[in-house]
Amino acid sequence: MPDSSDEEGKQSQDLRVMEIRVSAMPDVVPSLRTLAADLAMRLDFDLDAVEDLRMTVDEACSLLVPAATDGELTCEFRWGPGRVEVNVTVLAGAPGLAQEDSLGWQLLTALATSARRSVTPRDDGYLTRVELVRECVTVAR
Amino acid sequence: MRDGSAVTPIGGPGVPASPEDAGTDVRELFRRLRALQPGDPSHTDLRERLVHMHLDLVRNLARRFRYQSEPMEDLIQIATLGLINAVDRFDPEHGAEFIGFAVPTITGELRRHYRDTGWSVRVPRRLKEMHARLGAAREDLTIKLERAPRPSELAEHLGVGKEEVYECLVAERGQHGASLDAMLEESAHTSFGTPDDNLEQAELRAMLMPLVRDLPERDRRIMLLRFGYGMSQSDIARRVGVSQMQVSRLLASLLRRLRSQIEDEGAVPD
After folding, report:
1. N or C: which end of chain B has fewer CB within 10 A?
2. How far is CA B145 from the centre of its chain?
3. In this prediction, does ipTM exceed 0.90?
4. Chain B residues touching residue A58 (CB < 8 angstroms)
């Protein structure tokens, strides 16, 4: 995105935050994706964008849930007008998660406005994070 | 107006069920039906004939209610149920034509089906009605705006509050249940549930059962005390009334025997 740094700074200031720590179990994924969709809906995203975000969060969590070695998953939502950011983080045992050529990852990049992954080595494993941004272009800022 | 022709304005061309019924006076048939005792074979026949005569009406009405994913066969069954109710309840002396009575009875049955059983999760009736309006608004706006509408646009279009639209959008998700297996099929995480820890044990137990059953009473008892209750050999000796040495020897030979039997058994299915 060709955002000027000025605009970027303003955006992150205005964003609301919600952080959720859950057991890294497949059955928490529906709750997380529903939450994401609800946020987008209340931000007045168009309904296609709401569905896209729902699927993105589902995919990101599904990607990370099986890799969590300590059985925990952190999901951070930040949102403001026309924009939802979702950061999903787990502590993984191996660094090679969310390969860019995997089907899941391609889905993520197709549905999200931007999708990034990062792996940070730590003493007890690899902090693996997927950062998603979904914007709704039709919403008046 | 005859009943046969009254079908026409409702759907496609109304075709009488069979040529012989074409000229029949339906009201007269109902009079005859009412004169008969329910349970009487001729009552059953006449009732069935009346139902069959109006099956086209059922198909026409069912087709009009085919909004969503509901299978046509189900709708026809439900509508037929409505028709049977109408045949049973129609009063030929009341003055109205049977069709005039049957149509609302059948559509009522179809509506009730949509209201009561169309949703996997029970949601308030208000929301179900809202859901129907929302669906129409969604279609209209998608065409008008050439993109998916926003909740605020839907609210404005329908003249309702945004909260109401939110509520309905959330409730909509409960209309169709998702199979638990869908989680396995559709997503990357396939470890939904794990095999029981003692699953292998179960197989072994099943294998042992017929062998143990064939053991003499005393041997079986010793096996149970040792491996079932976990008693020591001396405790067993005291209880069964033999020496501990004997128990030890007995157990050893028992196990040897069972092992060889299992090996024999195991060789067969492989």
Report:
1. C
2. 39
3. no
4. 187
Residue A77 parent element (H or E) = strand A68-80
Mean pLDDT by 10 residues, chain B (270 residues): 38 44 75 88 91 90 75 88 92 84 90 75 79 88 90 93 90 71 53 68 80 84 85 85 86 86 61
Distance from CA of A47 to the nearest CA of B (A): 6
Selection from B55, B57, B41, B49 nearest residue B24 by Cα: B49
The answer to whether the Cα torsion of A85, A86, A92, A98 is positive or negative is negative
pLDDT tens-digit series, residues A81-123: 999 999 999 999 888 765 666 777 888 888 899 999 899 999 9
Q: Nearest by CB to B188, from A41, A104, A138: name it.
A: A104
Q: Do B187 and A42 touch (CB under 8 A)?
A: no
Type of residue at B269: P
Q: Is B185 on the interface with A (CB under 8 A)?
A: no
CA–CA separation, B237 vs B214, rounded Å?
A: 22
